[in-house]
Design goal:
mainly alpha
Length: about 240
């Protein structure tokens, strides 16, 4: 417990140093939501669409943490030999990774809290407390797929390549997956690709819950398998690398 507390204090210090990052990763999606939702006001667009766009921008914010925060933090810890220091200390690597996961979920909760508050207070998006909590839960659990992608990025040989790939995936999954606009405006071949992406499937999971109060079985199975496959890939690669070294 003492080791975990010490690690948590270090993680909090690191989070405080990333104030500018949080301003961008949470502030920009909030601003985008206000701009584009403002364009919807006064039109015939149903309120459910305003809700869906709010959750899409929340997911866009969460993806930023998954694609950039975790990969850059792990890469930095590796470069600075922090991970080697942990390995030769009373702190176990399990505790190290648990603290990293806890910090990531704090990032997720910050994104959800801020963007949801903007939507509710400024755009008057109203739902029951139970629905707000359930949608937040779906976003967090579903975002494990993007955490898995972020971990795959850490397998790349350089931080520069990791950054480029992260940015391409970040924008590609957002646009092609329907976070910025409905994929129905795309050509059929792009729609087919979009429907295979985790961003689209997670939004389908949320939309099915909001519209029908049901669980989208296909989206749930897809996200589960997608996440498990990527996590397995990372674990196998790490173990193989350790054996070679």
């Amino acid at each position: 417990m003492k080791n975990m507390t010490s690690l948590m204090k270090v993680e909090i210090i690191l989070m405080k140093r990333q104030a500018v990052y949080y301003l961008l990763s949470i502030g920009l999606p909030s601003v985008f939501y206000l701009i584009f939702s403002g364009m919807m006001l006064g039109s015939d667009i149903p309120e459910i669409a305003l809700q869906a766009y709010l959750f899409a921008m929340t997911l866009f914010s969460i993806m930023s943490s998954a694609f950039f925060s975790i990969p850059s933090t792990l890469e930095s810890d590796k470069t600075n030999n922090w991970q080697k220091l942990i390995q030769h200390s009373p702190v176990s690597m399990v505790e190290y990774y648990l603290i990293k996961v806890a910090g990531l979920f704090v990032d997720f909760l910050l994104s959800i809290g801020v963007v949801f508050t903007v939507g509710h207070v400024v755009r008057h998006v109203n739902m029951s407390l139970q629905d707000w909590v359930l949608v937040a839960f779906l976003l967090i659990v579903g975002s494990l797929a993007f955490v898995a992608i972020g971990l795959v990025l850490t397998l790349l040989p350089s931080s520069q390549l990791m950054s480029v790939a992260g940015n391409l995936l970040y924008m590609g999954l957002a646009v092609m997956g329907g976070l910025w606009m409905p994929i129905s405006v795309f050509p059929e071949w792009m729609q087919a690709i979009g429907k295979c992406l985790p961003t689209y499937q997670l939004m389908e999971l949320i939309k099915t819950f909001l519209n029908k109060g049901q669980v989208n079985v296909f989206a749930s199975v897809y996200l589960t398998l997608f996440t498990l496959v990527l996590f397995t890939l990372v674990i196998v690669y790490r173990r193989h690398s350790e054996v070679r070294s």
